[in-house]
Amino acid sequence: MSRILIIEKIGSMTGDEAVAYAAKQANVDVICAYPITPQTIIVERLSEYINNGELDSAFIPVESEHSALSVSIGASLAGARVFTATASQGLALMHEIVFIAAALRCPIVMAIANRALSAPINIHADHSDVMCERDSGWIIFFAENVQEAYDLTLQAFKVGEDHNVLLPVMVNLDGFVLSHCAERVELLSDDEVAEFLPPREPIYSIDFEHPITYGPLALQNYYFEFKRQQEDAIANSVPKIEEVAKEYEKMTGRYYPMLKCYGVEDARAIVIGLGSTVGTLRAIAKRLRKTGEKVGVIGIRTFRPFPSEELIKALEGTEVVVVMDRAASLGSTGGPLYLDVAGALYGTGTQPLMLNVIYGLGGRDFTPTDAEHVFRLALKTAEKGRVEKRTLWIGVRG
Amino acid sequence: MSEKKFKSKMPEEVYTGRAGWRDLPIAAMIVEPGSSMRYKTGAWRALKPVYYIDKCKRCLLCWIYCPEPSIIRKEDDTIEINYDYCKGCGICAEVCPVGAIKMVREV
Amino acid sequence: MDRCEGVMGVFIKTIKDLPREDLYIAPGHRLCAGCGPAIAIKLIAKAFRGPTVVVMNTGCVEVSTTIYPYTSWKIPWVHVAFENAAAVASGIVEAFKTIKRKYGKGVVPDVVALAGDGGTFDIGLQALSGALERGHDFVYICYDNEAYMNTGIQRSGATPRGASTTTSPAGKVIPGKLERKKDLIGIAVAHNIPYAATATISHPVDLINKVRKALEVEGPAVLHVLCPCPLGWRFDSSLTIKVARLAVETGYFPIYEVEHGRYRINIPIVKPKPLEEFIKIQGRLAHLLRPENREILERLKRDIEEQWKTLRALAKLEIE
Known about the structure:
The structure holds three protein chains of three kinds. Chain A has helices at 15-25, 40-51, 65-77, 88-93, 95-103, 128-131, 146-161, 190-196, 223-235, 237-252, 277-290, 308-315, 336-345, 368-384; strands at 5-7, 10-13, 30-31, 58-59, 82-86, 109-114, 139-142, 169-174, 183-186, 213-214, 259-262, 269-273, 295-300, 302-304, 320-325, 353-359, 391-394. Chain A is of the alpha/beta class. Chain A folds into two domains: 5-251, Rossmann fold (3-Layer(aba) Sandwich), CATH 3.40.50.970; 259-394, Rossmann fold, CATH 3.40.50. In chain A, the strands form three sheets. In chain A, strands 4-3-5-6-8-7-14 form a seven-stranded mixed sheet, sandwiched between helices. Chain B is mainly beta. Chain B has two domains: 7-39, no CATH class; 40-107, 2-Layer Sandwich (Alpha-Beta Plaits). Chain B has helices at residues 61-65, 91-95; strands at 47-51, 71-73, 79-81, 101-105. The longest helix of chain B is centred in the middle third of the chain and has 5 residues, at 61-65. Chain C is an alpha/beta fold. Chain C has an eight-stranded mixed sheet with strand order 2-1-3-4-6-5-7-8, with helices on both faces. Chain C is globular, with a radius of gyration of 19 Å. In chain C, 35% of the residues lie in helices and 13% in strands. Chain C has helices at residues 36-46, 60-65, 85-103, 118-122, 125-134, 184-189, 204-216, 230-233, 240-249, 275-280, 294-316; strands at 52-56, 77-79, 110-116, 139-144, 195-200, 221-226, 256-259, 262-265. Chain C has one domain: Thiamin diphosphate (ThDP)-binding fold, Pyr/PP domains (Rossmann fold, 3-Layer(aba) Sandwich), CATH 3.40.50. Mean pLDDT of chain C is 94; it is low at 1-8. Chains in contact: A-B, A-C, B-C. Chain B binds chain C through residues 10, 14-15, 28, 30, 32-41, 44, 60-61, 63-70, 73, 77, 82, 84-85, 87-91, 93-95, 103, and chain C through 15-16, 18, 20, 22, 25-36, 38-39, 42-43, 65-66, 68-75, 201, 204, 230, 236-242.
């Protein structure tokens, strides 16, 4: 049974529970997910809500993640508001369908409790699962804490279903670190959510008056155009993401821009990260700034579409940028986030020294001590004025 | 909520292969049902069926078995061959029990 | 002559009872001349009633009927991937039911998942099994041309023993596919579904009645439709119906149905024609008539005999 505690719109819940609670308040129509640690609590809570009559939704217990997303696409094309969740191997298994969901423009919301990819099998926090999907055309949000996991799930429905966007959205929360840790969450009332998220109004769902063929074969003479359309769609989602964030701020006082910046205006060294690590970095940065060190932190809330413009502006004038990657792109020049940042900055004139830190794979803890080490390394690099070793694996023994 | 109207018509240029990405309905949706009728597969034929109506017993086997379908069933259960789509497979001639359809070379 | 024994609520008695027009599919598709699956989808569509959604797997029919910007479908039609028609169909039917219940909007249409043997027997088996276990109200029809025809005639789990395909060629050392064909209806019936049946295109009244019955039944129904392929089975395009009829008359493809576990043989073959008549007409099997391939031909014949023995025994069982 549910153990979450809610007293007058303040809840004590884990990340998984918060996401499930948001999906319930969003009044989703179809939920289809296959259990995988550390997402299982989301699925379990939602089943409880439905079986206790708190949520009127179809719960389809599929036989694999591949079918989970396939069922979700079918339901989305039929016009339903759809929610699913997965992690790690499950996301890898549904990989082919992930691309199809975005290409068929189904506004599905999928929560991902980020977990390492096998082998060896590991169930802990790691971003390698979602990084494999970064080219898929989904909008990708990262939550820094349980509050954000709740807020971003609600915002995801509104952004994805907008008629000018029509794209699926991933909401990422670190496995176990966020998914299974209880934090204080400020909730909206059911009525407030109902007003923020009215029932979905699809514009091209299955209609017997206007029959449509979905998912045809497109040969060399047409495929290219549809991919160009997707690129246009995801680029144009930026204003909508901003608009929804501002609307949410009016309701709650909480505002999440594409980049969450702290201390960047006068920073010599800025560390960029995704997910829960950003919280650790900010706490250490605050401590260091009190002693006069000019350091800054950027937490990327929207990873796709990648906020290049905002990043270039935020990094102007800084000497050293450290990109934290909780995933490796093995055999490449750096982790996936590093490649995106470096690619965004190249040739723009904003050319700080760059370091890439691979950390935390397989749930290896990234402690405040590690964070301080990273900042000091960045400042030392700023002093030296050159980079000695571009990519560092911090926290690994040997 | 919606400023962009869903494109509910296929632009004519799409059938000449010149439509650009801005003109096409999204997600490769084909919004014109039965648009394959614009593609005349009759051009594939090497053999062509010829119908001898005086032999026809109106059994309708040719009509039920045509794969396209390119055999039209008339009110009196005689048939008419739609040469726009007939690929000349010869099934109609083969199943006809009285030889009312014969395949000849397409000239 | 085809009979449909003991079918309740027979939809049609003869082909003349069918509507004249094709309301659901249009010509102009790019399936081969004489294509068996083309005949099958036309006949299947004749059994549709009211709003229908067709969900397909990747395969010959999907690829040939929906080459952008042309579509042969006049109804809503969905294709997602190769192995998940059953899953997508599950999502569609549950979504429509939920929307109707929650908001009082819309109708609950018939949802028909249509897939080839490749996307059913092999890669699609998991999704089919899951959908059947969950008991969604939909129809799953497998159009079986006994190989992965769309990608170039490679063997599948539905290819019969001895058949020559591009990945099981009749070579000097190995004479074709060595493994026996899977029993799809057996697999479906193992999920305790209300209705499963075989059918083929040479017996259109039987096929159409079974599709209508599958639509009317509440819960999942599985149809296994044999569709000869002129290109893959190597025979002249005019002989498709003749080959299908020989498949039935030689006993190669039994026509039967299973209603809540009760087996009924719709076309009992008391004196089957010799299997050689079915074999000699097809290039993919003709090599079995050579003396050096006697053994595998005997095994194929035994497969068919065993299947009939089991079917007859099952048809005799008393099940309430």
